[in-house]
Amino acid sequence: MTSVRANASSKRRLRPVGIHNRRYLGAKTRLLDLLERVVSAECGQPSSFADLFGGTGVVADRFNAPNVRIIANDNLRCNVVPMRCFLGTTDVDMARVAEWIAELDAMPATEENYFSHHFGGTYFTEENARRIGAIREEIARRRALEIIGEKEESVLLTSLLYAADKVANTCGHYDAYRMKLDKTAKLELRVPAIRQEANRGNVVFEEDANRLAGDIDADVLYLDPPYNSRQYSDTYHVLENLMRWEKPPVVGKARKMDRTGLKSAYCGRRAPEAFRDLVARARCKHIVVSYNNMGKKGDDRSNARIPDPVILDALASRGSVRHFEVPFNPFSAGKHNICFHRERVFVCHVER
Ligand SMILES: C[S@@+](CC[C@H](N)C(=O)[O-])C[C@H]1O[C@@H](n2cnc3c(N)ncnc32)[C@H](O)[C@@H]1O
Description:
Blueprint: E1 4-5, E2 13-14, E3 16-17, H1 32-43, E4 48-51, H2 58-63, E5 69-73, H3 77-88, H4 94-106, H5 114-119, H6 126-144, H7 150-166, E6 191-192, E7 203-205, H8 209-213, E8 218-223, H9 232-235, H10 237-244, H11 271-281, E9 284-293, H12 308-316, E10 319-328, E11 341-350
Parallel strand pairs: 3-6, 4-5, 4-8, 5-7, 8-9
Antiparallel strand pairs: 1-2, 9-11, 10-11
Helix pairs in contact: 3-7, 3-10, 6-7, 11-12
The chain binds S-adenosylmethionine.
S-adenosylmethionine (SAM) binds next to helix 2.
């Protein structure tokens, strides 16, 4: 990735930021090679690839090419905005956008605002929180005045989201902040590195996966639903709040907004039923599913919601099924305490 010069008069070079440069629970960044090998061996070269639980969008991005139509989706705005930016943006003048990002990055932010009031001194330093709130307000203002369009807005918001996440005083999610506020690096906006030439024909949705499944056709339908009862709308509430910018009241120590309407059936007891329903609706040639098994834990919140027999039966009801498994180490809890588990990929060749 090369850096982008903001404008002729400015000597400042803004650093680029790629789609992978984000911390996200369950992101398949380290499984991409395996997924690509499996899809290539089992499904050939798809001309369309749908990722219904897109998250960061890194899986859809791996299959994104000028001759492949990507359909990406997630039910959270904090994922849809970056996917629109990296996978959906076409015909945007990136030199101009880089200038806007440089202007936003240089904006003074001395006054308290919604974001600093609620998230300053906890999730972010006071200064970073003031800047995040001021930049978000300015993006909203430019959009309301139609100085920027929807595509440019998604690029500016993505620049802000990635920058905020980099300096957040958390261990990668927003269920809580770290008691010691020692993440004091200054917020730095970067320019999203977008492959616009690959994005033609792509579409990004903000929908419930089950509702969307019956409305779209794809060669490959990739499913990576949440594994356990931890709702993504809980763990990423700060970023969701920032992207929506409806400035709702927040409550409790973690300062969460009301997340009614954002809860996923895949994190609850109805997960098996939701999975069966989704597979039944699929309109595609191949269904590819990632689902990990972290083993049975004492803490029920961490246990997988969909038992293997449910996955296998649901897929078998549509066609022949193959199953791949690799050891996967998503995180380490200290030097000598590495948590190994297995990540599985199921492929169903749809016959009925
Ligand atoms: C395991 S993560 C996917 C990670 C993604 N594959 C990546 O590599 O970043 C599951 C995602 O599904 C989304 N999600 C949960 N329930 C959903 C639903 N019913 N419809 C659409 N998206 C949903 C969550 O917001 C979360 O981003």
